[in-house]
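Entry 14. Structure prediction run on the chain below.
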Amino acid sequence: MYNVVIIGGGIVGLASALKLKEANPKLKIAVVEKERTLAQHQTGHNSGVIHSGLYYKPGSHKAKNCVDGYNKLIRFCDEEEIPYELTGKVVVATRESQIPTLNMLYERGIQNGLQGMKKLVGYDIKEYEPYVNGVEGIFVPQTGIIDYTAVAYKYAEKFRHFGGEIFSDNKVTDIKKIRDGLLSVICTHETLTTRMVINCAGLQSDLVARLTGAKVNYRIIPFRGEYFKLKKEKEYLVKNLIYPVPDPNFPFLGVHFTRMAKGGIEAGPNAVLAYKREGYSKSDINLVEFFGSVTYRGFLKVAAKYWKTGFGEMYRSYSKQAFTKALQELLPDIKKSDLIKGGSGVRAQACDRNGGLIDDFLIMDGKSYINVGNAPSPAATSSLAIGEHIAQLVLKNTAR
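Output returned:
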């Protein structure tokens, strides 16, 4: 019998397991993961950026947890000797019309506690990224690069060291209430009895939340982000990280350039509806999941509101020339022939019934469950802060 069962072996689930075990080593805790190995989905397909907290509305869960999580992550990596590099990044306005949003981001960064940011005008940008096209920009020194899969595995290693258990290759099929307020977590190969369930199931989080009995007023809509890589001989065009000014009404950052912790330069991503929840390529199709997405009332409202943006993203998905043109707004010297196919990831985007793309972290707290309903970027950077918050909720609930 367990005190807590955590569903999901990604970076948020593993961070929650570790922080809970640190908070109370006597708790018997298990993590169940449906894949054979850990960190297979959003964590394993992450772009590897250590986010600074620049973009997020001051006072939001994202802003608080990103800045706090950033500091915790850096300290953890220093202690555990996990490689990372604080490269800094430039956010670039390529048109005069983007300058007000750029200034708003700068002010947000200040309110979120970022220090050492620099406003860049004209040629100042070239000092950081010589080949960039921009009228104004911001240099953010806190941004960095890391391998989040390595971080997740270190969380798992320490969790096991403290006596935690991890059951891989165990998909949760049901959660049933049994005697004395206990829960039975039924998996493909194990059945675990527990007092509390923590749902960190990512792309499956709304489905698991329903199994806990929680009232779920949203649906996870999977958005695939596709990347190209720069050919080796063209990597000189990007020194570190180059971002555009994002659309403030759309929870995606736009195509950008990222120097990767394992080497190479990624260009992207776009943001297109995936044809299945874990659909990493155009050929990955699950008709039931796809039908569930496109007939959901909330998604239909999103599609009606953002159809032009969505059409452009889909067009770039099927047209390398269109993708190249979007990249050329930041780096005019990029050519179609400079790009080779890269990887892809799927973002678990929570969407409510009214067509709202939920931007902030969403954590639902119940007597016998905690559901992490929405944890998009910067969840990896924020993982230890999110885990600490969840640990505090568990301790509060167990003290009732």
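The chain has a mean pLDDT of 94.
Filed with the rest of this week's runs.
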